[in-house]
Design goal:
mainly alpha; about 5% strand; 6 helices
């Protein structure tokens, strides 16, 4: 049964006028706008999809990389908008705008490429893609602390972006030769 066939069977009093259709569309538009306004944007915070994509468990990584790939591919245009606004505020209007367009296009292409790579390689065990920053402010930003995955049987190591600690101890005094004991 087609939609037109259904419409032909409706009684005359159930058919909407043009004004009724416009009111219904306006109501639907208000509901959709309210729902969108109340939702946290996907680019506002690190999501569970990002955590799952970096998991060492194959089943969790599988879905996480698909989700992160779709998210990055669908929102790559946001980099252009955010960088245009930020660079225009930071510099002279024309130069800042052009800088924002270039920087945003570069970050958008990087995010789109990362998303496409995630979608193509989600099935590869042990490969978690090349994630870009969760922030659209700077696509090259890194987090303060990352957890490095260790091979099975070893502990994971947590690294920070602060200055590295020295691994070599320099003695403050010259070393004394060890005294040997002679035994018979």
């Amino acid at each position: 049964m087609t939609l037109l066939g259904l419409r032909a069977r409706l009684h005359k009093r159930f058919q909407l006028t043009v004004e009724g259709k416009m009111k219904r569309m306006l109501g639907i538009g208000v509901v959709v706008c309210t729902l969108v306004a109340l939702q946290q944007p996907a680019w506002a915070a690190r999501t569970a999809v990002h955590e799952a994509a970096e998991s060492q468990e194959y089943g969790r990584k599988f879905g996480g990389m698909i989700g992160r790939g779709l998210l990055n591919a669908a929102t790559c245009f946001v980099d252009v908008i955010v960088n245009i606004v930020n660079e225009t505020k930071a510099g002279p209007p024309v130069v800042g705008t052009l800088t924002g367009v270039a920087k945003g296009a570069g970050c958008g292409v990087l995010r789109l490429g990362s998303g496409a790579l995630d979608l193509v390689t989600f099935w590869v065990p042990g490969f978690n893609g090349f994630p870009v920053s969760d922030s659209y402010e700077d696509c090259f930003a890194t987090t303060g602390s990352t957890k490095l995955a260790a091979p099975m049987g070893y502990e994971s190591v947590e690294t920070t972006t602060s200055a590295p600690t020295p691994h070599v101890k320099v003695p403050s005094e010259p070393a004394q030769p060890a005294k040997k004991k002679w035994t018979k």
